[in-house]
Amino acid sequence: MLTDSSTAAARAADRAHVFHSWSAQGHIDPMPVAGGSGSTFWDYEGNHYLDFSSQFVNLNIGHGHPRVVEAICRQARKLCTVAPHFANDQRSEAAWLIAQHAPGDLDKVFFTNGGTESNEHAVRMARLVTGRPKILTGYRSYHGSTHTAMHLTGDPRRWPSDTGTAGAVHFFGPYPYRSAFHAESEAQECERALEHLEQVITLEGPQTVAAVLLEPVVGTNGLLVPPAGYLRGVREICDRYGILLIADEVMTGFGRTGRWFAVDHWDVVPDLITFAKGVNSGYVPLGGVILSERVAARFHDTPYPGGLTYSGHPLACAAAVATMHAMRDEGIVEHAAWLGEHVIGPGLRKIGEAHPSVGDVRGLGVFWALELVRDRRTREMLVPFAATGAQAAPMAELAADCRRRGLWPFTHFNRLHVLPPCNVSAEDARRGLEIIDEALDVADRYAAE
Ligand SMILES: Cc1ncc(COP(=O)(O)O)c(C=O)c1O
């Protein structure tokens, strides 16, 4: 029964004992969610929201996909859990399917419980393979929230935990709209970003660098699609210095960019891929590392020094198997690419032309962002970098307006990201864009004509 009292009870129960991530506990009021189906979820008062954030950019297949739900139930009836040192059919099939979709010789899968753990383990593997300590990652990146993963992260979430003790070194990746290299074209940005990376490696000492770890398309920190040639260039630099390339596909993997993996857009084969989120839409927590032959071979005769009680959990793996089958049978990855090309991309560009607050539109598949500015000429951000409180008000008002109109948005700093499930219908995608178009009037009030 959907009633106001259910909402009040759910709110009170949450506030009583739940400690939430990333938050000052006394300043939050999490909305209780009563249910979800496909691209929509709803509260206890019957308000429905079109999910344009795919929860935490993990819900690639939408809420309550019947095949995935059924697979979890079937597995639960058969075997809810099994220790990682046993073999399990769902785990083996999930690994086989992931290897089928992974590029090049990436053929073995180490399962974890999420993206953070995947990066922790990929970095450990790279250090053991190369015997080198340092990991290079981009400013404007997110790689997770445990000790190493937090230090790898190149955004303000790292600052409170940064002890400088994890061997992470940061560099600038390409960002044509706000070029760190004063570039005037994508080609120039690409060339200069690669020169910069090579200089960082030279000055750090190549013999001290185990891996370059990057998001092939930077997610939360900007939806930064790299210029053509950038990832290939990074691959070549890594090869020149015996450095491993780790692609963090936690957000981009499993259809989000219109390909199974984002690196496929540029035919680049990393040494390691980390994944989580879309592998089973987060119905049951799952992540992992996909290892190339060379990395896997290092641990053929020498034990890999790491493990997790729930590595390859059968419920999570059953959900992954069903997700990948459904994605393939329903053409979900192709649909995401089509939406990006024919609905979301053109729709957002049209919206961008109509609103003075939109400085830049960029993305791929169902992975897009509007970068909002006060002045298109100067590109002054609508709210400052890492703004909070009153400084962030324009973005908070925009988000509230989207919610009031029935769309759940994803905002970060001065950007509105557009991240519906990969199988959102064209009709719902268009409806979401209409809502964004209307809500942007709120941002326009702060922008110069
Ligand atoms: C690119 C990237 N890497 C790693 C992570 C961490 O994943 P998790 O929150 O599952 O630990 C995230 C989470 O958003 C991410 O976007």
Please name the CATH topology of the largest domain: Aspartate Aminotransferase, domain 2
What share of residues is helical?
Answer: 25-40%
CATH H-level superfamily of the largest domain: Type I PLP-dependent aspartate aminotransferase-like (Major domain)
- Please tally the helical runs, counting DSSP H or I stretches of 4 or more residues: 13
- What does the overall shape look like? globular
**Beta-strand content bin:** 15-25%
**Domains counted in the coordinates: how many?**
2
Which distinct ligands sit in these coordinates? pyridoxal-5'-phosphate
- Biggest sheet, in brief? 7 strands, mixed
Number of strands: 16
Radius of gyration from the alpha-carbon trace, in angstroms:
22 Å
Mean pLDDT: 97
- Contiguous low-pLDDT stretches (5 residues minimum) are none
Please state the structural category.
Answer: alpha/beta
In CATH, what is the class of the largest domain? Alpha Beta
Strand order of the largest sheet: 4-10-9-8-7-5-6
**N-to-C order of helices and strands:** HEEEHHHEHEHEHEHEEEHHHEEEHEEEH
Structural overview:
This is Taurine--2-oxoglutarate transaminase. InterPro entries: Aminotrans_3, Aminotrans_3_PPA_site, PyrdxlP-dep_Trfase, PyrdxlP-dep_Trfase_major, PyrdxlP-dep_Trfase_small. The chain is α/β, with parallel strands linked by helices and 449 residues long. The chain has two domains: 31-64 and 331-444, Aspartate Aminotransferase, domain 1 (Alpha-Beta Complex), CATH 3.90.1150.10; 67-329, Aspartate Aminotransferase, domain 2, CATH 3.40.640.10. It has 13 helices and 16 strands. The chain has helices spanning 4-17, 54-57, 66-78, 89-101, 115-130, 147-152, 186-204, 230-241, 293-298, 314-329, 332-354, 393-404, 426-444, and strands spanning 33-37, 40-43, 48-51, 106-112, 134-138, 168-171, 209-214, 244-248, 272-275, 287-292, 358-364, 367-375, 380-381, 407-408, 410-412, 415-418. The chain is globular and about 60 Å long. The model has no long low-confidence stretch (mean pLDDT 97).
